[in-house]
């Protein structure tokens, strides 16, 4: 196939490019060209700016591709510009969305058919405040233009080599340090993630099969006890885990920013960590062992130049 990625030089996009090349496909990336990349020379690099309404998409005015993978779409008007421009020259449009599209609420499991966020102001462009709701609108733009030629992939929190967000990286670094690690809750709360490489392979597989629809990409829910033990196994870490009740964490002001991935069962968005992946598994999603993800993430992190290495300051248990 001849594939076009809107984005493609960092983390998720980079892994999609590498997966596609490994499977024998041709790849073009469309980026601003402001960030150096280490992609293979075989990649065709197109440059422009999706936010520039005056000529920002000129590099996409010609050319045909079997599929477009939109890794960098956050605003519906921006997604509409590219999706409409490419509609007659792209076979399938695959939009990378998020599991953050769902409305908060009490439910045992989050499926692809669970209620979505409905923004009170659909004209807002405050991505930081309305990330999930804007992704919902972006999905609808793509579906409206492409119909059965649209595919939506909703990744869970993405882990693996290249994770500059520090969210999964935090746990690999914390357990590798060897000192006692503050472990959130009592170990029974659910947690999920997806390795960026497994996400990438699944995206390319969907395009190879010309598969329409909407899919979660996530490992099955696992307990925090199993999660941290598997991370420790991957790193051969003997660090002591100090389980700390959610009420104590709250009293100390420790939340997602300090202890990434932890969402207590009592919180409104707890269903995010009970995301059903069965539809994606049936369509070909395969997930590697957590120990492998933890080990590879740490190896990548410690190999980064000091000025690019994620800043990890583990939260210590109270003595």
Compute the number of strand runs: 13
Order of secondary-structure elements: EHEEEHEHEEHEEEHEEHEHHH
Name the CATH superfamily classification of the largest domain. NAD(P)-binding Rossmann-like Domain
| Strand-residue proportion | 15-25%
Give the class-level CATH name of the largest domain: Alpha Beta
Describe this structure in words.
There is one protein chain. This protein has 319 residues and is α/β, with parallel strands linked by helices. It has helices at residues 11-22, 76-86, 127-146, 169-176, 196-208, 224-235, 246-251, 278-283, 290-302; strands spanning 2-6, 26-31, 44-47, 65-70, 90-96, 150-155, 158-159, 181-184, 190-191, 194-195, 213-217, 222-223, 241-244. The protein contains nine helices and 13 strands. α1 (11-22) links the parallel β1 (2-6) and β2 (26-31). It is globular and about 65 Å long. The model has no long low-confidence stretch (mean pLDDT 94).
């Amino acid at each position: 196939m001849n594939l076009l990625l809107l984005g493609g030089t960092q983390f998720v996009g980079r892994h999609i490019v590498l997966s596609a090349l490994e499977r024998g496909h041709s790849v073009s990336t469309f980026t601003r060209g402001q960030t150096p990349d280490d992609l293979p020379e075989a990649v065709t690099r197109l440059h422009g700016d999706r936010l520039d309404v005056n000529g920002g998409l000129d590099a996409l005015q010609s050319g045909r591709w079997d599929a477009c993978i939109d890794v960098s779409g956050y605003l519906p008007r921006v997604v509409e510009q590219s999706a409409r421009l490419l509609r007659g020259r792209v076979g399938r449009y695959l939009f990378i969305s998020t599991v953050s599209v769902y409305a908060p609420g009490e439910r045992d499991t989050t499926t692809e058919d669970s209620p979505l966020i409905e923004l009170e102001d659909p004209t807002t462009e405050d991505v930081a405040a309305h990330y999930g709701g804007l992704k919902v609108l972006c999905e609808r733009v793509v579906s409206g233009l492409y119909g059965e030629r649209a595919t939506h992939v909703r990744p869970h929190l993405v882990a693996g080599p290249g994770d500059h967000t520090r969210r999964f990286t935090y746990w690999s670094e914390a357990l590798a340090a060897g000192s006692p690690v503050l472990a959130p809750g009592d170990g029974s709360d659910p947690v999920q993630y997806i390795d960026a490489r497994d996400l990438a392979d699944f995206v390319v597989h969907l395009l190879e099969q010309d598969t329409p629809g909407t899919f979660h990409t996530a490992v099955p829910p696992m307990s925090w006890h199993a999660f941290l033990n598997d991370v420790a196994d991957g790193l051969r870490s003997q660090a002591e885990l100090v389980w700390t009740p959610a009420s104590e964490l709250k009293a100390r002001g420790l939340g997602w920013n300090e202890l990434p991935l932890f969402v207590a069962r009592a919180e409104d968005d707890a269903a995010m960590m009970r995301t059903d992946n069965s539809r994606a598994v049936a369509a070909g999603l395969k997930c590697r062992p957590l120990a492998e993800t933890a080990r590879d993430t740490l190896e990548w992190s410690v190999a980064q130049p000091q000025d690019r290495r994620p800043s990890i300051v583990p939260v210590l248990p109270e003595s």
